[in-house]
Amino acid sequence: MKTINIAIDGPAGAGKSTIAKMVSAKLGYIYVDTGALYRAVALYITENNIADEDIEKALAGADVSLRFVDGAQRVFLGDRDVSDLIRTPAISMAASRTSAIPAVRAYLFETQQKIARENNILMDGRDIGTVVLPNADVKIFLTASAEERANRRYKELAEKPDCPPYEEILQDIIKRDYADMHREISPLKQAEDAVLVDTTTLNLEESAEAIIKVINSKIG
Q1: I want to staple 56 with a disulfide (CB 3.0 to 4.6 A). Which of 89, 103, 141, 208 is the partner?
Q2: Count of structural domains within the chain
Q3: What three-state secondary structure class fits 73?
Q4: Which CATH number does the domain housing residue 169 bear?
């Protein structure tokens, strides 16, 4: 039986994970958060002070996995739930850097493809439609202006005591965009056959509906 694969790519802070979760729940598909996998690897490398030249060998002990706990997807390093630790700005920047390292991409590539071969999935990331799932049934490039993405992130962090100022968040997003788009391996770009969905003026529900509309138009 053929599985259905939906690829969603886009820059940091575009709401890919949140929107993809909503859409996958509505469609009854498995959601695969590839960004969380890369963040977990970045956390592992950071916590263990692993030098770039030692990463390939060290990854054998990383034991990164996605698990469903009480119906929610959680990210684990070994038996430790790191779902919250991987969402800090520092790990976000580290993930952007380490995701460009060939050994890291190779480590996670087969994991992602195996899940896609065996399930109806919705997978989001930076290079899903261009590299990981080039034959996906539906490809979407989800984006929003850098200012709107920074505003959303600021609102998420506003109640925390160590919330950075808006301008700092905006500059981090701009730097992350540049790093993702200019890395040598699998740079962030819209696949030629991907549908562009801009959520700058849309709320979450409207964004999810826009994506479902695209999916239905492609696969019925």
Answers
A1: 103
A2: 1
A3: strand
A4: 3.40.50.300
Q: Which pTM value belongs to this model?
A: 0.77
pLDDT in tens, 10-47: 998 898 989 999 999 999 898 988 888 999 999 999 99
Rounded Cα–Cα distance for residues 90 and 172 (Å): 10
Specify the residue for token string 């701009």: 174
Provide the token pair at 140: 């979407």
Is residue 96's pLDDT more than 90? no
Q: Are 122 and 17 in contact (CB under 8 A)?
A: no
- Boundaries of domain holding 11: 5-219
The Cα-based distances of 83 to 8, 87, 132, 208 in angstroms read 21, 7, 23, 23
Q: Are strands 138-143 and 195-198 parallel, antiparallel or unpaired?
A: parallel
The span from the CA of 124 to the CA of 31, in Å, is 8
pLDDT at 73 over 80: no
